[in-house]
């Protein structure tokens, strides 16, 4: 992922067992200096256990962890130049903002003038220059997030770990903080490692994302690579929204396959993940809602064409969606634009759906699901 000689963080074949249960299995990755790297996965996939090993709160059963090119195995948390922001922030309520940020500097014996200079500098960089004398309870949720990050960044960590830090915020503030966090990471030019189960957070903020499932990394790539070129069925289904069908391959031609679904649909698609799909294989087919064209019953291209009736409309401005019920009874989600005009699709309307083969992908059933 990088041509630099030393990465800020590198994990090599890291495993963690709790008795007979293996929470993290042979995880390897390398993060370039100054990157925003997210680990994305469902609850219980092992991502928090991995982060705790990086921070030093857990020791790997096997494997190695390097920070700035040096192994940190058997190095206690307080001796690693790694800081961590938790979901509930853990700001000290009995201290004001200045004292919260200064706390770590005082612990390492920094002199008073240097503390004052560093605290003011970091407050300027998180765009809160005048809040040093405020009490924690006087801050908004977004301000508390920035102060929690400032308290870590004042200590100049090599890596900042963020464990679902937006999980306790309301939706509107969470959306705003995605942008804030990306801007803060650029401001400090420090490596951020972000743990989340929310794909939107990972895709919006990250330079690279690792998708984790059952203790393993399924794929590491840019958000665009994960979204448009998933290597496993799990990644295709977990990253972004997708319609899915199960079926069998009836023919293969190069990197494309013809699939007949259990509902009787016949569709041409590309083979996913570089796996060798052959005729007769059971597969899962994925098509994203934005790649499906909806016609008002006036015909559609013959390739990958379906007929159905609009079951319901989900209005969300420019991101509205139609739920179309096929003749087989299956529901298909289609992204649409509802302008309020006479040409808008209506509930109960007969429609045609179609998509291009290049926008559909199939994986062998059971492969990475």
Please describe what this structure looks like.
This protein is an alpha+beta fold. It has two domains: 9-234, P-loop containing nucleotide triphosphate hydrolases (Rossmann fold); 241-364, Nucleic acid-binding proteins (OB fold (Dihydrolipoamide Acetyltransferase, E2P), Beta Barrel). 23% of the residues lie in helices and 34% in strands. It is built from eight helices and 20 strands. Strand 17 (320-326) and strand 18 form a beta hairpin. It is globular, with a radius of gyration of 25 Å. The model has no long low-confidence stretch (mean pLDDT 88).
Short description:
The chain contains eight helices and 20 strands. With 369 residues, the chain is α+β, with helices and mostly antiparallel strands.
Index terms:
Rossmann fold, OB fold (Dihydrolipoamide Acetyltransferase, E2P), 369 residues, 34% strand, 20 strands
Number of helices: 8
Overall spatial form: globular
Would you state the CATH class of the largest domain?
A: Alpha Beta
What is CATH's topology name of the largest domain?
Answer: Rossmann fold
C-alpha end-to-end distance: 26 Å
The overall strand count is: 20
Summarize the amount of helix as a percent range.
10-25%
Q: How is the secondary structure organized here?
A:
Blueprint (H helix, E strand, L loop, with lengths): L8 E10 L2 E11 L4 E5 L6 H9 L6 E6 L2 E2 L10 E4 L11 H11 L4 H14 L15 H13 L5 E5 L7 H18 L2 E6 L2 H7 L2 E6 L2 E6 L1 H6 L4 H6 L4 E11 L2 E6 L4 E6 L10 E6 L5 E3 L9 E10 L5 E7 L4 E6 L13 E5 L5 E5 L5
Parallel strand pairs: 3-8, 3-9, 6-7, 7-8, 13-20
Antiparallel strand pairs: 1-2, 1-4, 4-5, 9-10, 11-12, 11-14, 12-13, 14-20, 15-19, 16-17, 16-19, 17-18
Helix pairs in contact: 2-3, 2-4, 3-4, 4-5
């Amino acid at each position: 992922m990088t041509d630099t000689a030393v990465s800020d963080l590198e994990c090599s074949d890291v495993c963690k067992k709790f008795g007979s249960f293996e929470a993290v299995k042979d995880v390897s990755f390398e993060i370039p200096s100054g990157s925003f790297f997210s680990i994305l996965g469902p609850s219980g996939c092992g991502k928090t256990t991995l982060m705790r090993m990086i921070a030093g709160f857990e020791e790997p059963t096997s494997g190695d962890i390097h920070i700035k090119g040096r192994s940190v195995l058997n190095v206690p948390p307080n001796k690693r130049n790694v800081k961590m922001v938790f979901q509930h922030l853990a700001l000290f309520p009995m201290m004001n903002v200045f004292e919260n940020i200064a706390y770590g500097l005082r612990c390492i014996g920094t002199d008073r003038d240097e503390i004052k200079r560093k605290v003011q500098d970091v407050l300027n960089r998180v765009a809160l220059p005048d809040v040093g004398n405020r009490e924690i309870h006087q801050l908004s949720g977004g301000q508390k997030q920035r102060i929690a990050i400032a308290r870590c960044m004042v200590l100049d960590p090599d890596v900042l770990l963020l464990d679902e830090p937006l999980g306790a915020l309301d939706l509107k503030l969470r959306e705003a903080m995605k942008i804030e966090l990306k801007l803060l990471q650029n401001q400090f030019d420090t490596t951020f490692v972000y743990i989340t189960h929310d794909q939107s957070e990972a895709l919006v903020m990250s330079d690279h994302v690792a998708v984790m499932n059952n203790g393993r990394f399924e794929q590491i790539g840019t958000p665009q690579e994960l979204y448009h070129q998933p290597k496993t069925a799990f990644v295709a289904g977990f990253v972004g929204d997708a319609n899915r069908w199960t079926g069998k391959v009836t023919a293969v031609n190069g990197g494309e396959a013809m699939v007949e679904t259990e509902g009787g649909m016949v569709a041409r698609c590309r083979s996913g993940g570089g796996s060798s799909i052959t005729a007769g294989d059971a597969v899962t087919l994925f098509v994203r809602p934005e790649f499906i064209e909806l016609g008002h019953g006036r015909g559609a291209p013959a390739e990958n064409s379906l007929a159905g009736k609009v079951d319901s409309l989900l209005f969300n401005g420019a991101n509205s969606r139609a739920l179309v019920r096929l003749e087989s009874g299956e529901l298909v989600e289609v992204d649409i634009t509802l302008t309020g005009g006479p040409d808008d699709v209506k509930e109960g309307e007969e429609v045609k759906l179609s998509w291009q083969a290049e926008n559909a992908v199939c994986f062998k059933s059971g492969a990475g699901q």
